[in-house]
Design a protein that fits this description.
- This protein is α/β, with parallel strands linked by helices.
- It has one domain: Glycoside hydrolase/deacetylase (TIM Barrel).
- The chain has eight helices and ten strands.
- The strands form two sheets. The chain has a seven-stranded parallel beta barrel, surrounded by five helices. The protein has a two-stranded antiparallel ribbon with strand order 7-8.
- β5 (142-145), α6 and β6 form a beta-alpha-beta unit.
- The chain is globular and about 40 Å long.
- The two termini are 19 Å apart.
Length: 260
């Protein structure tokens, strides 16, 4: 049986008439999209346009809720309570679900953005708030997060599907966490390096940390950020390199057990 993986990207992260990155070009190569829901980026017009484009290309739809932090692009920790996190995640995911339904589609997954993603990975109360918000929509949404994180623990306890995510365009610490963006070398900008890392993640379950150590990393889905320089070319090379290595690149939900 061929090895399978999903290739996802964070898209729809613009404001008004301004669009970030090459969303349409990136969608030619990924199999899932995580769409900003208006709190860290995006707005109703962009949400609708991104959903329509993704549906036309047969890409799985995911919600990408973040902190209410437009100025900081959702990458600043805000110290919100679990109750606040639950409320604004329910609001954001519910809004994108309504947009998807209005266009004949449906959400497949939820992946928190930026500082909220990092908070949920290590803070069980925050992870539970995000997972509960997704679960209360009653759509069997897959929760995307790091392997072994609080997201995975809470999903196991709640009986909700979980997908382990790794990043082709971000550097890792020896502990298996992402290197902070403030550190030089934290973002992988060379498409060839990102493609090589993606193939190794899938076939060997390993990635080389910033210090040179190999660390194990389980991967159901690989992320490429839409705001990484040259993201469209990177997505193309990552996709072709995976397929040349014999990896099936298919949407989330198509190969996770128990998810239709």
């Amino acid at each position: 049986m061929a090895v399978s993986v999903d290739l996802n990207s964070d898209l729809g992260e613009g404001f008004g008439a301004w669009r970030m990155g090459d969303d349409a070009l990136i969608m030619d190569h990924v199999t899932s999209v995580n769409i900003a829901c208006g709190f860290h980026a995006g707005d109703p017009e962009i949400m609708i346009a991104t959903v329509e484009e993704a549906l036309q290309k047969g890409i799985a739809l995911g919600a990408h809720p973040g902190y209410p932090d437009l100025a900081g692009f959702g990458r600043r920790e805000m110290g919100c309570t679990p109750e606040e996190i639950y409320s604004f995640c329910l609001y954001q995911v519910g809004a994108l679900s309504a947009v998807a339904g209005s266009r004949g589609g449906r959400l497949r997954h939820v992946k928190a953005h930026g500082a909220l993603y990092n908070r949920g990975a290590g803070d069980e109360a925050a992870a539970r708030a995000i997972v509960r918000a997704a679960g209360d929509l009653g759509q069997e949404l897959i929760i995307v997060g790091p392997q072994g994180s609080c997201f995975e623990k809470v999903c196991l306890e709640e009986g909700l599907p979980f997908a382990a995510e790794a990043f082709a365009d971000r550097a890792y610490t020896p502990e298996g966490t992402l290197v902070p963006r403030s550190v030089p070398g934290s973002v992988i900008e060379d498409p060839r390096e990102a493609a090589s890392r993606a193939v190794r993640l899938v076939l060997e379950g390993k990635v080389t940390a910033l210090g040179g150590e190999d660390i194990p990393l389980r991967t159901d889905t690989i992320c490429l950020h839409g705001d990484t320089p040259g993201s469209a070319a990177m997505a193309a090379l990552v996709r072709s390199s995976l397929e040349e290595a014999g990896v099936r690149v298919i949407p989330l939900g198509a190969f996770l057990k128990g998810v239709s």
